[in-house]
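haha ok so turns out i had the wrong file open the whole time. this is the CORRECT one, sorry everyone. sequence first:
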Amino acid sequence: MEQYNVTGMSCAACSARVEKAVSKVPGVTSCSVSLLTNSMGVEGTASSPEIIAAVEAAGYGASPKNSGTANVSSAPAPDSLKDTQTPILKKRLFVSLGFLLVLMYFSMGHMMWGWPVPPQLEHNHVAMGLLQLLLTVIIMVINQKFFISGFKGLAHGAPNMDTLVALGSSASFIWSVYALFAMTDAQVQGNMDLVMTYMHEFYFESAAMILTLITLGKMLEARSKGKTTDALKGLMKMAPKTATLIRGDTETVVPIEEVQTGDIFVVRPGENIPVDGVVLEGSSAVNESALTGESIPVDKAEGDRISAATINQSGFLRCRATRVGQDTTLSQIIQMVSDAAATKAPVAKIADRVSGVFVPVVITVAVITTIIWLLAGQTFAFALARGISVLVISCPCALGLATPVAIMVGNGMGAKNGILFKTASSLEVAGKVDIIALDKTGTITAGEPVVTDFLPTEGISREELLTLAASLEKQSEHPLAKAILQKADEEKLSLAAVTDFKALPGNGLTGKSSGSLLAGGNLKFIRTQGNVPRSMENAAEELASQGKTPLFFNRDGHLLGIIAVADIPKADSPQAIKELQNMGIHVVMLTGDNERTANAIGQAAGVDEVIAGVLPDGKEAVIRSLKEKGRVAMVGDGINDAPALTRADIGIAIGAGTDIAIDAADVVLMNSRLSDVPAAVRLSRATLRNIHQNLFWAFFYNVIGIPLAAGIWIPLFGWKLNPMFGAAAMSLSSFCVVSNALRLNFLQIHNSSHDKKRFKKNNLYTVSTAQPKAEKKEEKEMTKTMKIEGMMCGHCEAHVKKALEALSQVESAQVSHEAGTAIVTLSADVDDAVLKEAVEAQDYKVLGIE
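then structure:
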């Protein structure tokens, strides 16, 4: 996605106009314009000059954002998010306010309350009118941006919010000037009654007040909008500026842009780690809260990976750079948050459609209102006031800001807590899932076996059993051996030397220690080495039923005991699963284990359903079947999870997993803890709720305000809206929307006390065995080849594949962006129009279907 800065936009109608103009450029496959950040994201083959020309033809300005190099992140620079508008608007506001107070003193203070004025003005109504004219012109010049932008948009056939303000203020001013000249003529003729009539039809103060109040609203809006990007600006500020490299025998401090992959650098206590790397020498505790939100420092030693912007707290580290510039974890996080802000959530489409026609409709309503009141026999001044009120109370800005401000704050909250949403759509969909499928290994469990039980025989102590077992396993490379050795290391046991070590694959180990023959392995192997009491066999069966692996050890043919090893659920997994269930989400565990082991892990974790026997390539088929029951989220961390992550309505990758899984996912959890899954759902729901509140307020405000301004209630209740109050309401509407979105900053995403509860059926828990092969139909497969334009990369392929395979008649889709084709395998006949619609809904063009 290429990103551009866009200038000249003032409301949602502007962003809709820019988006429409750029989307028409040949080669553009998708375009998303953000009014919040004044930016635009464009995908496709169109060149930058063509895109910029389209924006300028629409009446706005555009320039490419820094695309970056290998050593410079393509994420936006901190200066690009700096709030430059608030100081300018504040200065404009204070100067306008100064002149407005003087104007109000003469126009209303003297006229209504008899405040004193110089004798030269007191009885000279023409001079009083000229003074008001002069003060109003000064305020109009100070706020000339409204007129330049408004009438420029009108000239390009794209009226915006500034057009409404400019028309309302201009109409007030022009009528007041007419009244001033008419009053002058009446005074020359000596008709004082007519002079006083025209004197009361001055709207100079309304014209000035409209501009000043709208400027106030714009200033408050700009200030609040600046706060919505605080999280992103905070991430950018954390990026280190320099690094200390080892060159030869000397240490050299260089700018961060000069660091290359493979460079050796050092980090002292208290310093920020400059780039991603691996520790070569030293050990320390590193604070990774900047990336993960986790405040507890993580111990790092030789061979461990470290990330840029984390803080070295205690020891001296010598490291090798592995990722620099835009490839560092921090830069990728910044890029994800920035890209998400540049995309639009599906819920925003309604507001976009309304915003595109809103301003022309409002202008039409204002004209009709004025005409109707004139036909009803009212004076031109009265009718004009109603029309002006309609113009200045209508606010397309609130509609345009309702979604992006909430998305930006929600994304920022997620980033601060180690939860990264790649797009605005993923932030919206995460809260709507009905089913969450969890991969067992590495997601529910830690993915590393640990010792769970000791069953020493009579006369053998627990310590002796563990010491002899660890001594024997010391030379083994088996994962279960590592679990025993780790336990021995935790208990600081001294291990015995073992000679004549032999490993018998699939069976066990033998070796000699202190003249005794040690043996370890499964039950079948140990039976060949000596007698196993029936009671121990029964105990082993009980452990196996709990999903644990019993390992037997004997010495000189006599059984020493059993050590059970298992990949157990993470400490937070049961609570996380319970929270998901309380949200009304059906939790499914996918595992390749047999039913007995899977059932044991499933019950320990507390999931609703276990699908056992899932082969690595069968997860995608399971997700497809689950999607028939509702929206599905898949949580995984491995390479073999990538197809399932893509197939699911939303893919969630554990951050410690592979780059492939993270690339295929829609949401990335930096902390690798399952408790962040309900937190992500909770954040999504809160953001969506906030968006709905904003949209309701924006629509409700206009639905109530426009009829009131038009004077519909005057015949019934006598309610009449002064244009000045209409301008005040307009200026506050956007501020209210942005302020409401900022409330998301106070959301406690790990607090489950406000989660929506559900009634859980007693028979909800089930265990089944996945049989992907049996699901394949023997019928003759039907295939269609689609020619598609606009796919540029693997991400495009994934979007098209996901869209096609979401259709119930589609078995699979093989998509190639290089060939520009999608070969679709069908389980039932499907109309070409359905396939075309599914692809073009993702903003790609279908050239033909064969």
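The longest helix spans residues 676-710.
again sry for the mixup
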